């Protein structure tokens, strides 16, 4: 493993985009929460936003937004993970305990404002997401879509080739005086695409 590799990036590359609806806004989300840090990606299929935050910034923002609360950075982050992860993973918000709103900034940033309750007092958090760089968009959206497109095209080509060969077989049967009754032909799909054609109930009658 590359010692310089970013564990959040590695995890997000393996993580699927999840559909979420926040404050009536439909988005796709890729959240990653570590022990003391998080990283999230969001897109509305027109723009892509991200935020990456480490432990020191978590503590600073927690104190900035929750001046009445006194808790350790670990306690703040644990509570944030507990209430935010379901919202960013397509889970249901529990009653009115967790509220989240979306605010699009004029400079292109996207802010998600979260409100919940911690130790009987209101707990506030803001996910301050900025437009993602082109390299990130390519890695998490463009390349996976191109790979899927190539895979589907390969399956289509296999199917076309299989149908062409079956047409040739049927024509050969007919030229040799055989009659094929109507039946059901199955195209079996394996993990690597089409594996073979299996006639389920075709009968060949010689003339």
UniProtKB/TrEMBL annotation:
Every copy of the XLF-like N-terminal domain together lies at: 16-130
Q: Does the keyword Nucleus apply?
A: yes
| UniProt xrefs under Gene3D superfamilies | DNA double-strand break repair and VJ recombination XRCC4, N-terminal, Helix hairpin bin
Q: Which GO terms describe its biological process?
A: double-strand break repair via nonhomologous end joining
A Pfam short name: XLF
User: Boundaries of each XLF-like coiled-coil region domain copy?
Assistant: 133-181
Q: Which GO terms describe its cellular component?
A: DNA ligase IV complex
A GO molecular function term, named singly, is: DNA end binding
State where it is primarily located: nucleus
Give its localization. Answer: Nucleus
Q: Which UniProt keywords apply?
A: DNA damage, DNA repair, DNA-binding, Nucleus
Q: Which family does it belong to?
A: Belongs to the XRCC4-XLF family. XLF subfamily.
What protein am I looking at? Non-homologous end-joining factor 1
